[in-house]
Design goal:
This protein is an alpha+beta fold. It has 7 helices and 6 strands, in the order αααααβαβββαββ. The strands form 2 sheets. The chain has a 3-stranded antiparallel β-sheet, with helices on one face. A 3-stranded antiparallel β-sheet has the order 2-3-4, covered by helices on one side. The longest helix has 29 residues, at 20-48. It is extended, with a radius of gyration of 27 Å. 13% of the residues are buried. Mean pLDDT is 80; it is low at 48-63.
Length: 239
């Protein structure tokens, strides 16, 4: 039988003398074990539908795909009760919230629970819109971008008026319910008062996208279904 003593001597030296081979094996098996652990945890979280915070929404939400006739829309009034229509409750007041101390959400790709998931989890009614300490600067930046680029960053196509107004009203409802110390509307819901910026927005006459631009530091994309059962962009702002 042919043997290769020089190879055995080399392996013995690496394994038992300087330990380089042993260290490599330990690192390799540890990495594999860590990968399996992360995959199992990811699978478990997706099966259970968990999110960053414990969900307060019922597991079964009625469909909201109903198409309203003009008469039904009129019967809902100028400012519908969206919480009742969608079965998604208004957020709870953030009683201890202070805008100056609200830090941006950290972006940590691999550190649970801050996985950025393209919003493919169930909606959290308390965190649909989040404010942070950069609010004033961010709103000013959005306004400047619209002044500089106009319809390249904010545009509403004909036929999107009702959808834009709905997005504005739902956002205003959220801000006033979640942050009552900073936002309020008058009794007739005609004016939004922004206590952070010291501004007001005319909810009856201002374009809905401009109300959102001036008060909500988020981008909006509105899509509507056409007769071919495909969804098309009809309005939005991206800054």
């Amino acid at each position: 039988m042919t043997t290769y003593p020089h190879i055995l001597d080399s392996l013995t030296k690496e394994l038992f003398v300087d330990g380089s081979l042993l260290r490599s094996l330990v690192i390799c098996f540890t990495s594999i074990a860590l990968l399996i652990f992360l995959l199992l945890r990811w699978q478990k979280s997706h099966k259970s539908g968990t999110t960053i915070r414990e969900s307060k929404i019922p597991s079964s939400i009625p469909s909201t795909d109903k198409v309203y006739t003009p008469a039904e829309k009129s019967a809902l009034g100028p400012w519908p009760d969206y919480a009742a229509l969608t079965s998604v409750p208004l957020p709870r007041p953030a009683e201890t919230f202070e805008i100056s101390k609200a830090l941006p959400r950290p972006y940590r790709t691999f550190r649970y629970p801050y996985h950025q998931t393209l919003a493919l989890f169930r909606l959290e009614p308390d965190y649909y819109l989040e404010l942070e300490s950069t609010y004033v600067r961010r709103i000013a930046q959005r306004q400047q971008l619209v002044r500089d680029h106009g319809e390249l960053v904010s545009k509403a196509l004909p036929g999107s008026e009702d959808a834009c107004r709905e997005a504005m009203q739902m956002s205003v409802d959220f801000l006033c319910a979640r942050y009552p110390m900073y936002f309020r509307v008058d009794a007739g819901k005609e004016t939004l008062h922004n206590g952070i910026l010291g501004t007001t927005s005319d909810l009856e006459n201002e374009q809905p996208l401009m109300v959102l631009l001036n008060n909500v530091p988020e981008d909006f994309v509105i899509m509507m279904e056409r007769d071919d059962e495909q969804y098309y962009f009809v309005a939005g702002e991206s800054t």
